[in-house]
Design a protein that fits this description.
60% of the residues lie in helices and 8% in strands. With 276 residues, it is mainly alpha-helical. The strands form 3 sheets. It has a 3-stranded antiparallel β-sheet with strand order 4-5-6. A two-stranded antiparallel ribbon has the order 1-7. A two-stranded antiparallel ribbon has the order 2-3.
Length: 276
């Protein structure tokens, strides 16, 4: 497809077209899950023997198995995606118990008010990150001290819980993401040319895409925030929440992509190319 596009389109248009297509391929897991959410809402009947949430859980489980079988994800990537899956589910249990949002439909595979398919929504974010880094041969430079990134990710995750009992420090966390990652560029290759984007900008654009996906989820009534109706937009404050949570997901994924992280002062031209 890339050869076809480059043979028929101007270079810049061909690069943009392949960028969009590769992004779509990277977020395949999340896209399939979102399609399943919309399609199941359109056709599901309340008197069917299998609850919609349970069908979504089985679909997500089968999709994950398919990804591993077809080697769309490696087992190493799957392990860190599972870690983010579990931390996301733990946050779901807490937030539902705190009344931040709810899953209104019944289900057999539902624990503490949270249907088990919800963990796969977090897994889809981890899946996207692992796949997009590999597909675009991404490199991150200059990368801040790794211990500092772990500390920031831990502080962000803890604040999602702690702000219910004490002050919300997310403004400070927003500032910290810029201070720590402000100089970091994401270098990526679409075909034969290196492009780059500031990491915080990439995180913001990704959080915007996730906010749109959230609106699709709430429009179908699959989950609803406290006081929200399905025809209401999700608060823009959730855009900030996803922006911060993406750093938790990213640092989790870096546990298996350490070779893509380069310290300050390393010239991008010296980066070795990954073998595909």
């Amino acid at each position: 497809m890339g050869d076809w596009a480059r043979a028929r389109l101007p270079y810049g248009v061909a690069e943009l077209a392949m960028f969009v297509l590769k992004q779509g391929w990277a977020c395949l897991f999340g896209g399939l899950l979102l399609i399943a959410i919309v399609a199941s809402k359109a056709v599901w009947q309340p008197d069917w023997p299998l609850a919609r949430y349970d069908a979504l859980f089985l679909f997500a489980l089968a999709t994950q198995a398919l990804f591993l079988w077809r080697k769309l994800e490696t087992w190493e990537e799957a392990r860190v995606i599972l870690l983010f899956h579990l931390t996301g589910t733990a946050m779901e249990w807490f937030k539902v118990h705190a009344g931040s949002w709810a899953y209104p439909e019944p289900a057999l595979f539902k624990v503490l008010g949270v249907p088990l398919f919800s963990g796969f929504m977090y897994a889809s974010v981890g899946s996207y990150m692992a796949r997009v880094i590999r597909i675009f041969d991404m490199r991150f430079a200059p990368y801040p001290p790794y211990a500092l990134t772990l500390a920031l990710a831990a502080a962000i995750y803890i604040n999602f819980f702690a702000h219910h009992f004490g002050p919300d420090i997310r403004i400070g966390l927003f500032a910290a993401t810029v201070l720590i990652y402000g100089r970091t560029r994401i270098w990526f290759r679409i075909h034969d040319h290196d492009w780059w984007m500031p990491l915080p900008l990439a995180a913001f654009l990704s959080s915007l895409a996730l906010w749109v996906a959230e609106n699709i989820g709430t429009a179908t009534g699959t989950w609803l925030y406290n006081g929200q109706r399905p025809d209401h937009w999700v608060s823009l404050a959730k855009l900030g929440s996803w922006y911060l949570l993406l750093y938790v997901a990213f640092v989790t994924v870096t546990l298996v992509v350490r070779s893509a992280l380069y310290p300050a002062g390393r010239a991008v031209q010296t980066y070795p190319r990954q073998t595909r």
